[in-house]
# Entry
Amino acid sequence: MRQAKRRGVLVAAALLVLIAAAVLGARVSTNGTSNLAKQIAAKNFEPEGQGNAYGGPGGESNDNLALQQQFAEARTAPIGIVDPGGYSNALTQLNGLSTIGGTWDDVTGHSGYDADDPSYRDYYSNSSGGSGLVTGRITGIAADSAGDMWAAGADGGVWRRNNGDTSWTPIDDNLLSLSSGFLAYYGGSLWYATGEANTGGTSYVGAGVYQLTSPTTNTSWTRVGGTELESSTIHKLRFGGGRVWAATLFGVWYHSSSTTSGPWTLAYAPNPANLTAPLHAFTIPGSWLNAQTFGTASSSLTNAPYKNIANDIAIDPHNSSHIIAALGWRSGDVYNGFYESFNAGFSWVKVNPTGSIPANDIGYVNFAMSSDGSKLYAINESPTLLNKLTGTVNSYLDGIYVSNNGSPAGPWSKIADSQKLANSGSALKQAVGGKGYGPGIQAWYNQFLLVDPNNANHIYAGLEEVYESKDGGSNWNTVGPYWNFYFPCWRPDALYPPDGGPNRCPQTTHPDQHSIAIGGSGGNQFVLVGNDGGVYKRPLNGSVNGNGNATDWTSLNDGSIDTLQFYAVGVGNINPATHTTPEGKVNETSLTDTNGTPSTAVGGLPVLAAGSGVLVSGGLQDNGGLLMRPRASKMVSNFGGDGGDVLVDPNDGCNILQEYVVLSMSVTQTCAHPNHYTRPNAFLDLSQTTTFKIKPPEINARFIAPFVANKSDINEWLAGGNSLWTWQGGFSIRSGSQWTKSYTLSSGSQVYTALAESGNKLIGAWCGPCNNSGFARGITIGTRPNSSTAWTFTNYSSSMLSGLGVPLRYIGGVAIDGDGNFYLGINGFSRRFTEGEGAGVGHIYESTDTGGSWSDISNNFPDIPVNSIQAQPDGSLLAGTDLAVLYRAPADTVWQRVGTNFPLTVAMDVEVGPDGNVYAATHGRGIWSIPNPSGP
# Structure
């Protein structure tokens, strides 16, 4: 979901018809329609708007492609696929550590996260878009005929909500993998395929398939088969003929669905030489595989992860031996296409599809087979469009097709393309939204397809939006539009769920669709969709308004399901001091109602008395910036779009520096909560905003680019792109021009990956090139005599750093302790959706001479990628890794695991709050806190 600045492009047409509109209890100043249009025009086409990670056309699709690439680089560069099985070994090492500290608390798991809270409609907000309560990406979803529901977070494991329940419950946060590829309810059991398979920015490999019998009560999963599918990703599970079929990163596999014992059988892989035989001791069915040559674990197989991708499987309901598979890499390969077996996977042929589907342009595909076998539907992404290097591409969707005889050979008929979907009530209609972001622009990442088991002509399709057809694709409705900003029914004071006002837009879903399921029975059947904002539900045959948008979506993201995907966390105390109205603050400690109860009269902001807790902020994948306020009934989104890194004033938690992406930073001193008495039009009028864009004039930066404050001075900042940027005025900054360029790396391809500053020392880790080909990394050290003098910089090139004993790996975190010693946290072994090198390589390094030499202090540190490292004043160290938070006590050499109850998921950022607690931002299970092992 994009930030509010891009939203302006979409809302302009809708707002031209609003001569007067209420804004949060006030009125929009309207001196005629033209004046309102000028207000909205200020939001249009800002520098980062409608852009990729570095500016220009392409929107979120290019942003996600950049993110996908960069997360891969962190865990695989310089070599792509080495050390099969490293994940299990790392977990064994982790489980062998002693534990220190108490029990972790799920900070963000106690209340809902409201993307539409009306009190946080500052200028750069997405509030009123219509998503309502949200959580993180849901990549698997299932339901039964009784109305019981299950949902799987991208890296948050499986959650249960039985019929009649009002909340969700996680099912085993310590399962071997919480990365979710697919979820299915079949034969009275719940089937969980681990390993998110959409090849998006932060997908992680899994540990195979698990089965849960009695899934409404049971919490004990059983692994299906052995380790054959470990370290893979799984797109789909399909059932038929007594088998469960799996479409995986390593081709098509099957297993008996009546037992969990015995290995999986490899049914088909188009390029078996790219499968590493030592890792996959698979059963061979006895046909084509007997004559194939299999690869070995070798660094030369850098493209191996892209050579055997199975995206979906369909099984003929009349002949369970007739199996259809869609194979292919989203960017195209010679093996891409449809495959067919008539003998239950013993032999396969590549199909030459006929009709309107382009046989030479098959990419990422999802199937939907009608229950009577009469129709086979397919949604196809176009590698040709994805690889287009010039011009603006409005969509990567080739089309949605139907084979009216159920055969993959066709003939296929096209029943939808991007333009047809745009004209179905879409919020991405090109005539209004401008070029570069039409339906299907993320077809390589967002896809689902489902056919009603009771009606072969009733179809649901998911891209960025949710589409429905009840006549076999002749006509479509956008039942879940991207957002409501596009439409005449939108009002800037909109509430979600709608407050009953006349002609108001109904609630929609969050954008970017990933999963779908049907549950219930008879007239109570419903459809569930999972997307980047969580789980949404509506009747299977629901109602729509005149624009074709559904009027009956319900968000099920009530706060009890916490799959939020954070990049960073920041924590600040509550400042009870009186602030002047230009910044929208008041002395909130003095506000009480007639009964002496704390009041919420100030624009809905609860009273934040000193000592009542801390303010917690975080940057989220596709869910903006989150703010958690003590004693509040819900969390709020005070920044729109994608969140990134975050910096919070520990003395005043409403002073926040929040990244969009690539150093596109915004600063607020009001928690991005404008005073609605003094700034009633802040949502539409840039002159009234309390949030300010302060991006430095950087030429290149990582998608999630680093910035920090000096440990000795919260007002001294350091930000890193291709250059190091400094600022010494704290949260008073109002323009990107106020940054000072202090140092620039020698090549424009080199960018900083991690920063730390303490007193008169600083360190920046960089990479460039950052991908497998030619990977290089280094560090920049800065020193100065005192804070009033200029920095002196020493840069250590990649070869120099290797000569000092630091491994050629991506540096995920850096730190400086109170004695001026430097620390490096090294990433590597597990790529998001493939396996990479790193096993046996140290992960924590220390320098006691300002970077002149380095020592490996990993000792018993498990072989896990490091994302964040903190040096505490007492000399202890904290490290956030892909599986846990680790701790080394002062003057000790042994690492310990921090606390119990922490989910087995990715800790992207670890920070120490002013309350003395340790906070860990996970990428799939929210923010967690625990008392500091070092004490207050």
